[in-house]
Design a protein that fits this description.
The protein is flat. It is 76% helix and 0% strand. It contains 3 helices and no strands.
Amino acid sequence: MNVAVKDTAKQVIDALPENVTMDDIIHALYVNVKFVHGESEIQNGKGVSQQDAEKRLEKWLR
């Protein structure tokens, strides 16, 4: 495992309150991974504009 990954996991866990459950920890790590992945995609030009997202979601919001 990459040292940076372990450090990130430790930081995420350390930021949580003392009375967390294992499910809370797993969820926090999952959200962090997805957020970092999304940021990376946006930086690489793979993101979707707000306008395009609204058009895509329009059929679901009717």
